[in-house]
Recover the amino acids of this structure.
C-alpha cells in the first residue's frame, strides 16, 4: 500500500485498533500498539524495533520493553483477532490450514534457535521454526495463531530457557501437538472451519488424524507415498488374550500396502486418470490428473478403521514425476472436485507467510526473549488482519464461495474436468 493510500485508511486503522484497548490496563502502554502496527504497515525496508521506533518518534528501548517486559494481555489480543474473524468472515466454505515457517537467525540467543531444517532456504540452517494456523474464506485469508516450536535441546536446558524468558511449563512438543492446541484455541473463540488441510509432515502422523476424527473435523491432508492402508478390507476376529477377547486380523487376509503400491491394485490400476484444472496460476492453469478410491487405514491397534477414508493420487500433467497423495475423512459421497480444492488450498497459508514476511516484517524480530517473540507474532497477525480488511474494501466485495468447496459440493470457481 503506498503512503498516500495508507493515509486515507488511518481513520479506519484507528477504529480497528480500538477493538484491542481492553488488552492494556495502562494508557501509556496502549499507546505503543499503534506505533508498532504503523511501523509494520509502513514502507520501511527493515521492520524491526529500532527503525519502527525511530519512525514513530519513540525511543527504541521503549518499544523493545513494550514487547518483552511491559504488562499487557497478549492472549486476549490473539483471542480478539480470532473473534473478529469468526464474526466477520464466517463461511460454510471455510478452510483451516496448518503449516509451519522458519526464520534464519544468527547466534544462539533467539528463543528456540538451533541448526535444523529451514524451509525458508530449503536446507539445514541456524533458524527458529513456528507452527501456524491459517484461515481462508475466499477471497479472504489470514493467520489466526502461531507458536514457537521449542527443540529438545532447548527444552532440556531450563537455565537457557529461563534466560530467554521461556516459561518452565513450556517444553518440547511435537509440532502436531502444537497444531492441535492452535486449532482448539481458535474453535474456543468461535472460529468454525468446514475443512482442515495440512502437508505430509502432519498427514503421516496417525495419532494426529485420529485426534481430528475425535474432534469431528473434516480434513483433506497430504500424506507420504509410504502411507499404509487397505483397499480390500481384511477380516477381523476376536481371540482370547487372558480373560479378554481382543480383535485380531485373520491370518492370510489382505495386507496393508503403501499408497504408491495401491496404484497396482485393480481398483486403481484399471481406473483411467482423470484430468482436473485445479486453479489458474500466474503462468497458466494448474492441471493434475487424479485417481480416487476409498480405503481403510490402520488404527492404533493396527486394525482397519471402521470409517472409510478417501485416497486421492494426483499427478502433475506437466511434470509427471511429481505425484501427491491425499487422504480425507469426509463422508464417502463427497465429490472428488470438492476434495481436490481443499487438498490444493495450502497455497493460501504460503501466501500469508510471503505477505507477512514481505509486507509487515514477520521474520524481522531481533529480540532475545520469548515473551517478545510471542507478542510479535500476535501483533503481526493484528497488522495483517487489517491489511486483509483493507483489501476487501478495495475490492468492494464480501467473502463468499468464489472458489472454495462447501460441505457437499463446490463453489462457483471449482475444479472441473478437462480434455
Amino acid at each position: 500500500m503506498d503512503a498516500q493510500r495508507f493515509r486515507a485508511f488511518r481513520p479506519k486503522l484507528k477504529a480497528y485498533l480500538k477493538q484491542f484497548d481492553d488488552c492494556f490496563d495502562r494508557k501509556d502502554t496502549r499507546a505503543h500498539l499503534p506505533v508498532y502496527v504503523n511501523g509494520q504497515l509502513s514502507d520501511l525496508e527493515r521492520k524491526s524495533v529500532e527503525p519502527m521506533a525511530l519512525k514513530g518518534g519513540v525511543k527504541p528501548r521503549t518499544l523493545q520493553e513494550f514487547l518483552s517486559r511491559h504488562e499487557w494481555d497478549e492472549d486476549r489480543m490473539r483471542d480478539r483477532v480470532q473473534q473478529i474473524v469468526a464474526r466477520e468472515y464466517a463461511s460454510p466454505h471455510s478452510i483451516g490450514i496448518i503449516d509451519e515457517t522458519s526464520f534464519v537467525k544468527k547466534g544462539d540467543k533467539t528463543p528456540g534457535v538451533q541448526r535444523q531444517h529451514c524451509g525458508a532456504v530449503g536446507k539445514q540452517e541456524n533458524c527458529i521454526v513456528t507452527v501456524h494456523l491459517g484461515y481462508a474464506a475466499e477471497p479472504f485469508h489470514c493467520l489466526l495463531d502461531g507458536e514457537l516450536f521449542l527443540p529438545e535441546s532447548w527444552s532440556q536446558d531450563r537455565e537457557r530457557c529461563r534466560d530467554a524468558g521461556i516459561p518452565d511449563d513450556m517444553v518440547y512438543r511435537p509440532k502436531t501437538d502444537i497444531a492441535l492446541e492452535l486449532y482448539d484455541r481458535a474453535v474456543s473463540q468461535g472460529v468454525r472451519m468446514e475443512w482442515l488441510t495440512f502437508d505430509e509432515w502432519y498427514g503421516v502422523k496417525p495419532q494426529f488424524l485420529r485426534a481430528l476424527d475425535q474432534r469431528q473435523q473434516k480434513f483433506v491432508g497430504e500424506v507420504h507415498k509410504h502411507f499404509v492402508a487397505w483397499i480390500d478390507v481384511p477380516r477381523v476376529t476376536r481371540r482370547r488374550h487372558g480373560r479378554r477377547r481382543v480383535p485380531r486380523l485373520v491370518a492370510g487376509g489382505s495386507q496393508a500396502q503403501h499408497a504408491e503400491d495401491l496404484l497396482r491394485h485393480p481398483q486403481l490400476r484399471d481406473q483411467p486418470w482423470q484430468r482436473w484444472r485445479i486453479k489458474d496460476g500466474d503462468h497458466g492453469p494448474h492441471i493434475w490428473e487424479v485417481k480416487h478410491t476409498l480405503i481403510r487405514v490402520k488404527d492404533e491397534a493396527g486394525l482397519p478403521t471402521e470409517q472409510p477414508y478417501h485416497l486421492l493420487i494426483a499427478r502433475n500433467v506437466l511434470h509427471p514425476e511429481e505425484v501427491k497423495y491425499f487422504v480425507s475423512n469426509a463422508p464417502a459421497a463427497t465429490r472428488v472436485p470438492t476434495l481436490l480444492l481443499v487438498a490444493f488450498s495450502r497455497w493460501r497459508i504460503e501466501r500469508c507467510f510471503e505477505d507477512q514476511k514481505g509486507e509487515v516484517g514477520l521474520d524481522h524480530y531481533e529480540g532475545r526473549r520469548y515473551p517478545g517473540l510471542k507478542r510479535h507474532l500476535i501483533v503481526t497477525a493484528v497488522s495483517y488482519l487489517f491489511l486483509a480488511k483493507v483489501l476487501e474494501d478495495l475490492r468492494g466485495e464480501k467473502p463468499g464461495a468464489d472458489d472454495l468447496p462447501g460441505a457437499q459440493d463446490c463453489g462457483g470457481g471449482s475444479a472441473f474436468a478437462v480434455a
Observations:
- The CA atoms of residues 126 and 234 lie 47 Å apart.
- The first strand starts at residue 95 and ends at 104.
- The two ends are 41 Å apart (CA to CA).
